[in-house]
Amino acid sequence: MLIERQNQILEIAKQSGRVGVEGLAARFGVSAQTIRKDLNELCERGLLDRVHGGAIIGSTVENVGYEARRLIAREAKQAIAQAAARLIPDQASILINIGTTTEEVAKALQDHSGILAITNNINVDYAVIGVSAIEANGDLMDYDYREVSVARTIMENARQVILVADATKFERTAPVRIAPMAAVDVFVTDHLPDPAMRA
């Protein structure tokens, strides 16, 4: 069983993707050695992965390979992509993060005219975001803290954020939090399993 400090360390790692020994020692008012012991125990349990100076969130659930994910809920992803593409007018600028559903959105935008696709960090009209999982409380989750960092930046630099996700995302879990559902302006999906998610 984890002690309270270790639970808090896990929560911090879940929020930011990475934790540092020195920062945690200062935050909890304990020695760096105590934090190292906590991190080592969390790593032994498979909850974190050690890196120089700290740890990163570990995945207790393996993500499916990209090519295999393309086949999961393919028709739903295509329908979601068509609906999301209808939300984006011609002559708009757009950022799209990595993912099989967002890839379908990019394909669905091929008939739009004057679309400016942006790959670096500037303000855009629309951001289309895909996620690996959606928790019951509405938190948007992913597997890789680096991808989460990119998704957060994209969301911060868009006037409107469009989330695209098929219903299987409600059945999955992932270790790193991107943002709450409230950070999304429009959610395009094939099915909402819980009426509370509509609020």
UniProtKB/TrEMBL annotation:
Top-rank taxon: Eukaryota
UniProtKB keywords: Repressor, Transcription, Transcription regulation
SMART domains, alphabetized: DeoRC, HTH_DEOR
Domain HTH deoR-type per the UniProt entry, residue ranges: 2-57
Gene Ontology molecular function, alphabetical: DNA-binding transcription factor activity
Name of the featured protein: GlpR protein
Organism: Symbiodinium necroappetens
Organism taxonomic ancestry: Eukaryota, Sar, Alveolata, Dinophyceae, Suessiales
